Amino acid sequence: MRVFRMLVPLAALALGALPSEAQVGHPPQRSPYRDLTFRQEFSLFSGYYSGAKGRARVAPASGPMVGLRYEVRIGGPAEFTVRLARVWSERLVRDPNLAPEARDLGIRAWPLYVGDAGITLNLTGQKSYWGLVPVVHGGVGLATDFGKAGDPGGFKFGTPFAISFGGGVRWVPGGQFQLRADLADFFYQLEYPDAYFTPVADVAPILSGTAAKGEWKHNLALTVGASYLFFR
Q: What's the whole-model pTM score?
């Protein structure tokens, strides 16, 4: 474990130094490295959001995802990033007051919106390698269904705080356009109403009375997008 902790910062330093050192011995016109000359980018992306249903299986689940992304370089390999996206999600509606065999009332469309702001790091610094730029990202944000009502069991998804992290790769062939692919994880908490833990007329509740009323869940999003680059 100590060796691993020592290797992580060393690897980060090596990645930061790689672009300048690796060009030694290459004529400029034949170097695999190219400067990233634009400071801002605006992206449209789409993909698939894998939502966690939680222990009670009632949270907004998986669905197609579309969104917008804006990035601006703030120094070195770091860029400030803002993302907003809509998920065409759906969820199971359950009534805890009914018998177990009758309490599942069906699947309903349940649009979900996620957004975050954070820092993206280009692992090759301010250069691309054969047009490719691997990136890592971390940030904070929100997920919300804008208070959508209509649940007989009293479950509310609401607007939980989210921690986001992930990575991806950008393909910058030259000019003012690029393609990118990203994998993100939105980590937020689900909370269940008291009715999910309360037995009714000797009928077992949806969740055990000893279970926690909240749980943190990972929600993965895999997206691809196209970007317009501007402002040198």
A: 0.86
